[in-house]
Structure formats: C-alpha cells, structure tokens
Backbone:
C-alpha cells in the first residue's frame, strides 16, 4: 500500500529569539517491509540541512536558524510503500532452546543496549513484581507467544488517556496510573521484555487509521510509538500494545532506539528567554495509485 504522510511542527515565540539549533528524526526508513519513495523537508525560516545516520541507523537532520525569528516551522512530506510480509512469525525452536539462546553470553553482549534499563524504562522492584505476574517463556509456549500475551495484557488492563501522562512519564508512573498513551505503553512493554531477558527497542513512526474512522477526515492524528522485540530464529518483530496488534501495512517506521530519548522527532535549543508554544499536525493518507 502507498501512504502519504505530512508532519508539521510549529514553534511560536512570545518575543524574537536570536537563533536556534535543531535536530529532527522524521525520515521513514527503508527496510524489508516498507520503502520510502519520496521525502522532503521544508523549514521556515529557510535554512540548510545537514543529514547523517545516528548510532542506531536512523536518518537525522540538523540545522541552525542563525537570524532572529519569532516562528519556526518544520514540515515534512513522505510517500512510503508498505508491504505485508509473511516472516513466519511463530516459534521456530522449542522454548527451552529459545531460553538457552537468550541466556547465552554472546547473545546478551550483542544486544546489551536493548536489555539494559534507561531513564524511561527503569527495572524497579515494582515493575519487576508486575512482570512476574505474567507468564514466563515456558508457560506461554515460547517467546513469540509470550510477546503476544504481554501486548494483549497491556491493551486490556491499561486505559488510553491522553490527559493522564506527559512526554517525561516513566514506566513506574504508568504502572501506578494504569493509563497513558502509546509512548507509555511502549515503554512498559519494553521494560517487561527486558526483565524477562528479551531484547526490546522503542519504535517511532506513523499509523494509518483513516479508513477506520467511518470516512471522516476531521479526526485528530499524531505520530505513533510501538516496540520491536527479538524472537530467536526470526529476528526483530513488531508489536503495538496500544492497539493490541501486530505491525502490518498500516504502520510506517521512522526509527528505533532504546527509548523515546533516542528517537525524539524534533528537539533543539534557542537563544532568548521568550516563552514558546509548540503545535504538531500529522496527516496520514492512503494514496490511490489508479491514475
């Protein structure tokens, strides 16, 4: 399927600021299940962009606005072809072999950064106790089945509430509140996976739901977050605990990291003491190829 994505971030400053230095990660990846056919970035004020790959292979752009300004607009336009890929996402090995695989020193060392705690995914006693209430690899029947169970549990026991949390909410807070948004549920599932010895990483991207809104185009859209976890014999597999789903043609991946901090879509600093207002607009559409 072909998806069109428009993402605009606007900053309005109360007073004129001297300059700003910015970094963005808004370019969709090209991988086995999606191809970024076209991608453009526009900034206002207009400025030169410097592109590079970060440590995790995500495409990042940096730029500086060196003249005084009261408004900064960053607008991206992408066309992405997504594919339904059958990767035989089921357990290829008996669960005991999977456990041996996950516990091997070579495997742990290779995936250490996706097994370790981060500020958003602290392995506290409260979270560990919660993880212990869920199945293990053996009782679930394997790693893939366990991941499905974790995703389904978060979906069924936590309430989606955009007013309950904020961008800095930690997994401990989400666990206490029993509510949150996609970022919170992704961090929670990642933490549980790491406690159980399964490497997991945070995914930033987009989710097309336009055809699920009854034909209406006036619903609010936003960027989305989910996770990828490592299944022995298969590799990285995506799960969306917010929607209790597997990753299919509706999802467009921008990048991954250990948690949200590694893949913040837009961040920067500016000179001046002025207050600022930020607005984000996202539009994801299905493109009709019949011309």
Residues:
């Amino acid at each position: 399927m072909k998806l069109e994505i428009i993402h605009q971030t606007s900053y309005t400053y109360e007073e004129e600021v001297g300059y700003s230095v910015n970094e963005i990660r808004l370019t969709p990846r090209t991988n086995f299940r999606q191809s970024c056919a076209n991608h453009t970035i526009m900034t206002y004020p207009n400025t030169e962009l410097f592109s590079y790959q970060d440590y995790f292979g995500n495409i990042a752009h940096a730029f500086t606005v060196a003249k005084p300004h009261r408004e900064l607009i960053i607008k991206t336009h992408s066309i992405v072809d997504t594919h339904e890929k059958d990767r035989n996402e089921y357990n290829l090995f008996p669960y005991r072999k999977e456990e041996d695989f996950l516990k091997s020193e070579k495997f742990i060392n290779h995936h250490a950064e996706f097994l370790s705690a981060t500020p958003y995914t602290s392995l506290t006693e409260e979270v560990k106790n919660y993880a212990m209430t869920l199945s293990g690899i053996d009782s679930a029947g394997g790693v893939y089945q366990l991941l499905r169970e974790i995703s389904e549990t978060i979906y069924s026991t936590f309430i989606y509430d955009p007013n309950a949390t904020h961008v800095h909410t930690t997994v401990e807070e989400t666990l206490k509140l029993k509510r949150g948004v996609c970022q919170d549920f992704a961090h929670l599932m990642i933490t549980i996976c790491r406690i159980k010895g399964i490497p997991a990483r945070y995914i930033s991207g987009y989710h097309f739901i336009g055809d699920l809104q009854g034909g209406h185009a006036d619903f609010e859209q936003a960027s989305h977050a989910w996770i990828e976890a490592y299944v022995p014999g298969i590799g990285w597999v995506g799960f969306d605990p917010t929607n209790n789903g597997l990753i299919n043609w509706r999802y467009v991946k921008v990048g991954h990291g250990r948690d949200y901090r590694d893949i913040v879509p837009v961040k920067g600093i500016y000179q001046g003491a002025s207050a600022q207002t930020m607005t984000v607009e996202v539009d994801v559409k299905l493109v009709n190829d019949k011309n």
